[in-house]
Amino acid sequence: AIPLMMDVYYMFAPILYADSLPVAPMPKKSRLDVGVLRWGKALMEVEVLLHGAGIRLELVEFVRDSLHAKGSHPFDPHALQPSYHDTRGFAYHRHRLEELKFRRPGELYPFFAVDPRRPGVVEAVVSGEFVGKGKPFQGVKLYPRMGYDPACRALEPLFDWCDKNRIPIVSHCAAQGFPPVGGHDAFGLPSRFERVLARHPDLIIDFAHFGLYEPAWADQIVDSMQRYEHVYSDLACYTREDQIPAFRAAYWDKPLVRDRTMFGTDFDVFYLVGIGRTLDSYHRAFLAAHNPGAFTDDDMESLTSTVPGRFLSTVV
Predict the structure, then answer these.
(1) How does pLDDT run across 9-28, given as a tens digit for each residue?
(2) Is 8 left (phi over 0), alpha (psi -120 to 50) or beta?
(3) Is the whole model's pTM more than 0.85, yes or no?
(4) Residue 131 forms beta bridges with which residues?
(5) Which run of H or of E encompasses 208?
(6) In a designed cystine with 144, which of 165, 171, 187, 192 is the match (CB 3.0 to 4.6 A)?
(7) Is 306 exposed, middle or buried (0-12, 13-18, 19+ CB in 10 A)?
(8) Cα(83)–Cα(77) distance, rounded to whole angstroms?
(9) From the CB of residue 168, how many other CB atoms can be counted at a distance below 10 Å?
(10) Exposed (0-12), middle (13-18) or buried (19+): which is 188, by Cβ within 10 Å?
(11) Which helix (H) or strand (E) holds 232?
């Protein structure tokens, strides 16, 4: 499993356009508080739903015990003090993933969220402190829709470091997502990465969601796959069952698509948007045995094992 961090703190921050300088002002407190309260409420609702579904969050007990016995456990999240500007929610998310990875060795490969408007975060990653082979995080997660152009100057040191050290990147690539309104959709298009990929043609990057039902976005991903050797995509959040056979019919036999496409879920979003899907029903929708025209067993082996293994091969 590849858990992805998400830095929602800066969703109301000033926009970073192409060639923007690295550091942007902090968001206004009043607007930020509104956003934090809104998403905090949604996440609390998720917790209630998980509890009601009988899912025992044993990690909570593990975290409580480890924090009370600081230093007695081989993994101490407080041993590494972040060198970037930290915030409470971001720190909470990071520590939980680090601890979960320690609890499930060899099963989880988390990706660390980078928003170039968080002071010092790019410098912290390129220092090699906690991202890379043998580190708590195996890759980098980008979410340009939050309000930054991937071609901004702030991200160039990150792309250069990821390229040289073969660190994989996952970037949100869909005209939907967070925030639900007011998002900067176009920043996530593969074409916005063209300047980046022209400078770093060997960059390992997954344009997540395969455009999520938008043919114009999907076509750009296919074009990028054909021009760059390490461009991937995934089918996370394909919650419309009819769209899975439609995707397979339209794209599966295009050059390189089946060799560069991974399975994905975004399962927590199912609960946030209240569509009534479960992990089991989501997974079955990808199987031809349950959804005619969907993927064969061989296809699923490629989506869930072969291609992800190739994507992660430099850091596992």
Answers:
(1) 888 888 999 987 665 444 44
(2) alpha
(3) no
(4) 137
(5) strand 205-211
(6) 187
(7) middle
(8) 14
(9) 22
(10) buried
(11) strand 231-234
The sign one gets for the Cα dihedral 146, 150, 152, 155 is positive
CA 272 to chain centre: 17
Q: Which two tokens stand for residue 87?
A: 């915030």
HSE-CB for 301 with a 13 A CA cutoff: 3
Query: What pLDDT shows up at residue 165?
Result: 98
Q: How many CB atoms are located within 10 Å of the residue 81 CB?
A: 6
Peptide linkage before 292 cis (omega within 30 of 0): no
Q: φ, ψ for residue 140 (rounded to 5)?
A: -120, 135
Beta carbons within 10 angstroms of residue 21's beta carbon: 10
When the pLDDT of each residue in the chain is averaged and rounded to a whole number, the result is 84
Task: Give the number of residues written for the chain.
Answer: 316
Pair of tokens at residue 291: 């959804």
Q: What letter would DSSP give residue 181?
A: S
Supply 270's token pair: 């199912």
Whether 87 and 114 have beta carbons less than 8 Å apart is answered as: no
Cα separation, 236 vs 212, whole angstroms = 8
Q: CA angle, corner 227, sides to 298 and 144, nearest 5?
A: 90
What CA–CA distances, in Å, run from 109 to 5, 201, 207, 293, 309? Answer: 11, 24, 18, 31, 11
Peptide bond into 116 cis (omega under 30): no
Query: What pLDDT, on a 0 to 100 scale, did the predictor assign at position 47?
Result: 52
List all residues 6 or more positions away from 108 whose beta carbon is below 8 Å from its beta carbon.
Answer: 1, 2, 3, 97, 100, 101
